[in-house]
Design brief:
- This protein has eight helices and eight strands; from the N terminus they run ββαααβααααβββαββ.
- The protein is an alpha+beta fold and 203 residues long.
- The chain has a single domain, classed as H-NOX domain, CATH 3.90.1520.10.
- Helix 1 crosses helix 5 and helix 6 packs antiparallel against helix 7.
- The protein starts with 5 loop residues before the first strand and ends with a strand.
């Protein structure tokens, strides 16, 4: 195994051919909105959201494709809330809880019933994630027995701090479906305005 890790789930196309994300499924958006409502942040979020996107965000039907510009506007409005890192991580976990019941339900149930480790959940995640986003790619790499790296590339939402932190909470929750405790941190050397990279370990 090299210092960069062994490929567990490759990007769906070679890295240099990955195109930027252009659309995402509204199911992901509604899960995020429901979590903001549950935690009492929705009124301020709506104040922060660009008025041009209000109709799309508030009236989106589950399972339809939404322009990526709406996703950026959504995460920027969330970022403007000025929430603590701990709260943003909790919101990311809340989004996962909602997605478990919808788009990820079958894949996660099969993985959990296989009786396994966070590796199984991490292997499932890229395909399910990429079904929700047009463009971009997600890869998983093993850097130790209980130590992984997740990379999401071609993903302009990476430029928004809130998005990086909330997705970190989602990754933590994903692993803790089948383990006691997980630790997720940015791989700063790999992160930029179009790439999110996490180092994930668990006990």
């Amino acid at each position: 195994m090299s210092a960069h890790g062994e490929v567990v789930v490759p990007f769906r196309v070679p890295r240099e051919l990955v195109r930027p994300t252009t659309e995402f499924k509204s199911t992901w958006l509604t899960a995020s909105l429901d979590t903001l409502r549950a935690r009492g942040h929705f009124p301020r979020y709506l104040e922060n959201l660009s008025p041009e996107h209000h109709d799309t965000v508030l009236n989106s039907i589950a399972g339809v494709w939404v322009p990526f510009e709406v996703c950026l506007a959504h995460y920027r409005a969330c970022d403007a809330l000025g929430l603590t890192t701990a709260e943003q991580i909790l919101i990311g976990r809340g989004v996962l809880e909602r997605l478990q019941k919808t788009i990820f339900s079958l894949a996660f149930r099969v993985a959990r019933e296989a009786g396994v480790t966070p590796w199984t959940m991490l292997k499932v995640f890229p395909a399910e994630f990429e079904r929700q986003w047009r463009g971009g790619a997600c890869g998983i790499f093993q850097v130790g027995p209980k130590d992984a790296r997740m990379e999401i590339i071609g993903f302009p939402v990476a430029a928004v701090p809130y998005a990086r932190i909330a997705l970190r909470g989602l990754a933590m929750g994903l692993c803790e479906l089948v383990c006691t405790k997980s630790y997720v941190n940015d791989v700063r050397d790999l992160c930029n305005d179009t790439t999110i990279a996490y180092r994930i370990a668990w006990a």
